[in-house]
């Protein structure tokens, strides 16, 4: 079966949590694929007023997804725009920052550790041997470029989607690059808060062709079925173009929404889920479970859906449904 297993791996990783404003649940399952390449980040208390959730669907390997899960939310916090209250700009810059950080000696070492190519101890020793450039600069770089045997490393050929939701008070900011998706249920109606970045979309096709790429069989340069992603540096080699105009770009679409009492819950999930079910079908399924199961936990909902999705479609890939629920009636909260 190539990269597929003869039988799916149905063991699930699950997590849930809450604060005084929201509760969330996560469940992931490898399914039919030979390896698990998804990652996630859940920080209900990124700071005193902000929550951060993200799903990262890797392709060609797990390292870029794991890198984003480890560092993207940190970079959001460090942006000047974040301190100024501009969440959209802060997360947009952080997407591009991931590509910048994965280049060079330090980027190579971090990716090698995350990909289990070298252990953390060896990585620490290497970090002591090879020193950062520009230490005399007045401006401190929290990710200084290091001299070393991999200083010319241009970044990983593997990549990852990124779909991030940031909640501050009643404001929801969604940032997306790739075909993972964010959906909100409002009075039972599904509303997509992100767009799947497929090469056939006119705006994506125009950029790809202008940058010197081509589309064959729905894939960029005949290989990648995404028009936007973090990583995938082989598609970002044109030195005369800015990052947002490369064949494949990490530039996210930003969508800002004011939350209201009509909002039921929000879902973040990779394409393995959407290959099995439409946005409305998923919303209907979740509502059905909430209404029929006594005192349900969000964690249970995620696991139930993950199980059903794997049965319904033999070609589902990695599956990381990520479910955040807000302002449910008390009889649905399980409290």
Automatic annotation (TrEMBL):
Under the GO molecular function aspect, what terms does this record hold?
metal ion binding; protein serine/threonine phosphatase activity
Which family, according to the similarity comment?
Belongs to the PP2C family.
The organism of origin for this protein: Papaver somniferum
- Cofactor(s) for this UniProt protein: Mg(2+); Mn(2+)
Q: What is this protein called?
A: protein-serine/threonine phosphatase
Cited Pfam families: PP2C (PF00481)
Report the InterPro entries cross-referenced here: PP2C (IPR015655), PP2C_BS (IPR000222), PPM-type-like_dom_sf (IPR036457), PPM-type_phosphatase-like_dom (IPR001932)
- Supply the EC number(s): 3.1.3.16
UniProt keywords, alphabetically: Hydrolase, Magnesium, Manganese, Metal-binding, Protein phosphatase
Tell me which residues make up the PPM-type phosphatase domain: 23-335
Q: What class of enzyme is it?
A: hydrolase
Tell me if Glycoprotein is a UniProt keyword of this record.
no
